[in-house]
Amino acid sequence: MSEWSVDIRDVRFNLFDFLNVGDLSKYELYQEYDAEMMGDVVDAARDQCTNLLAPLQEVGDATGLRFEGGRVHLPEGFSKAYQAFREAGWIGLSHRVEHGGMGFPFVMNAVTQAMFSGANLSFMFTPGLTTGAAGLIADFGTEEHHATYLGKMLSGEWTGTMCLTEAGAGTAVPDLKTAAFPVDPDKGVYKIKGQKVFISAGDHDLTENIVHMVLARVDGDPAGAKGVSLFIVPVRRADAAGSAGEFNDVTTVGIEHKLGIHASPTCTLSFGDNDDCLGYLIGGKGQGLGCMFRMMNEARIAVALQGVGLAAASYQKALAYAKERVQGTHITEMRNPDAARVAIIEHPDVRRNLMWMKALSEGSLAMTLYAAYCADREMTATEPKEKQRWEYQVEILTPIVKAWCSDEAFRAAELGIQVLGGYGYCREYGLEQYLRDAKILSLYEGTNGIQALDLLGRKIGRKGGVMMMTVLNEVNSFVNGDAANGPLAAEIVALGKARDAVASTAMGFAQRMMKGDMVYGALHATPFLQMFGDLLVGWLLTKQAATAQDMLEAKLAELGVAADQDLGPVLADHAEARYLHGKVATAKFFCHHILPRVRARKSAVDSGDTSALDVVL
Ligand SMILES: Cc1cc2nc3c(=O)[nH]c(=O)nc-3n(C[C@H](O)[C@H](O)[C@H](O)COP(=O)(O)OP(=O)(O)OC[C@H]3O[C@@H](n4cnc5c(N)ncnc54)[C@H](O)[C@@H]3O)c2cc1C
């Protein structure tokens, strides 16, 4: 069984050769952070994965959680690892320094989250949700809230959660029943009563306090979205010294037994069973969903990053196995009983599966880091038009990265099992855990079906389609640029066709909607999102390949390799040339093997078929 590993060269290529994140230091917000510091963060994250998180991955899955005496107990080793993780400062990596964070660009948080999630997804729920909950308090809390909670949460001394879901309010969050009754409304103090389900990191034995961010309706407020408010509800109230004081009437009712993420507690929580649960309003009465929506882009990109991590880890494991596992002879020697037995990586069908995984993994990383980078550029831009350019890209990219990367992470794990054969189906080799763990990503933080409706219903048509056009213009400037006449010309032609397919499909939906047909778009929103995702991944991988091609040519010139020379020996000897050559191959593979899905999906959307609506099921 191979250990967890990451293609650190590809991570660095994305950050430093492609996005040039070191240039973010040009902006006041990030002037303290240069490329060298960011490189150190990447190295430190990899060490943390190798030495702290990955060794607990298997034990967490096998041991799972204990729910005893009303408390959740994590598997052995998790508490110690959590203390080391929080002391390293990861929870507040991208939070503002004045709040107790480290102030790094969001893209650095993104890249480290992807690595951590690949090394141990279950472990990452507690710190990840703490980062998100602290973000809500930072954005919407008062100075008093900041002083009480942010330092404790960003240092990881206290953890946080997001409490939206109830038994009768899953996707339809505004149907929630949890109620808030005024105690001292002028000071924002209410009593909370209700039950939340599926709360990740809702209880554990890592810290002395947990701060829940709870959506509830103030007694008498209107039904639906407008009546939903957001409350800080700690398990223990802060005392006069700011420490964890008396208990706040929050009870852990139980935990779920799940397909995957066995070491991540998914809790049912009861608030106010004894009528003594205080909640502190933030963001204003009736503004709860608005606050959550503001945080949603970040949360959805975070789920995409979990997919990135799992796809990458699956690929690395399958690749290492395929290089070692000897089985059969090369196809050209199939009739020779004395032929040497080869590693399965020599078989074309195994290579195709590996390349598919490589393309999904590198494509997910490229698209999600680009989305995070757009968020950084939106934050640093001062000129309104420039700000919009990045903001609109974040808006369109968010549902796409969430759904595409989560679906394709599951697919990558499944392909990994295929590469390993029967051993892939067995626990010992780890791929089956990745598959089980990955399934949750398409379900929470808005199911992938809901992401597709968000893209089509809320983003594509908004502002006369300008958001979508902003993204397509970025694609256009590459497709119509100099690279179209270079060695990637055929791939760029394929991209141009995919772009046309996405644009004309969107136009078709718009025409139907103008005639009052909302249902056809809702029926086909998922294939549309998948088409758009394929286009964006194809664009980014090919754009990266153009950069890699230039770097490869420079490298070969430096090595004195002639243009017509056989590259085999050079690639065998030089890791950098091998990496760059592989980067170009990945884009070609994506454009010729995966991108054609766009055509098939377009033809399904164009069919006009409504059998799924007409049939009696
Ligand atoms: C392991 C785990 C961890 C979780 N962590 C948290 C957490 O920390 N905090 C939290 O608040 N919640 C959490 N959740 C809850 C999660 O976000 C919900 O499960 C999810 O929002 C879906 O709600 P539901 O399960 O009730 O499904 P439903 O809402 O019942 O949906 C069932 C199906 O119907 C579809 N559907 C529903 N409504 C529509 C619609 N209007 N249009 C089209 N399709 C629709 C959905 O796409 C889905 O396929 C977690 C869930 C799990 C399993």
Mean pLDDT: 96
Q: Which band does the percent of strand residues land in?
A: 5-15%
Radius of gyration, in Å, reads: 25 Å
Q: Helix proportion of residues, in percent? A: 55-70%
Helix and strand composition category = alpha+beta
By DSSP, the count of extended strands is 12
What strand order characterises the main sheet?
4-5-12-7-6
The dominant shape is globular
Q: Regions with pLDDT < 50 over 5+ consecutive residues?
A: none
What profile does the largest beta sheet have?
Answer: 5 strands, mixed, barrel
Distance between the termini: 45 Å
- Number of H/I helices: 19
Small molecules bound in the structure, each named once: flavin-adenine dinucleotide
List the helices and strands and how they pair.
Elements lengths: L7 H11 L16 H19 L3 H7 L2 E3 L2 E3 L4 H10 L18 H14 L1 H20 L2 H12 L4 E5 L15 E6 L4 E12 L9 E9 L9 E7 L1 E3 L5 E4 L2 E6 L10 E6 L6 E5 L5 H37 L23 H33 L3 H37 L10 H9 L8 H13 L5 H14 L9 H26 L4 H41 L8 H6 L1 H20 L2 H10 L4 H4 L3
Parallel strand pairs: 3-6, 4-6
Antiparallel strand pairs: 1-2, 4-5, 5-11, 5-12, 6-7, 7-12, 8-9, 10-11
Helix pairs in contact: 1-2, 1-9, 2-5, 5-6, 5-8, 5-9, 6-7, 6-8, 8-9, 8-10, 8-11, 9-10, 9-15, 9-17, 10-11, 10-12, 10-13, 10-15, 12-15, 13-14, 14-15, 14-17, 14-18, 15-17, 15-18
Bound molecules: flavin-adenine dinucleotide.
The site of flavin-adenine dinucleotide has 19 residues, from strand 3, strand 5 and helix 12.
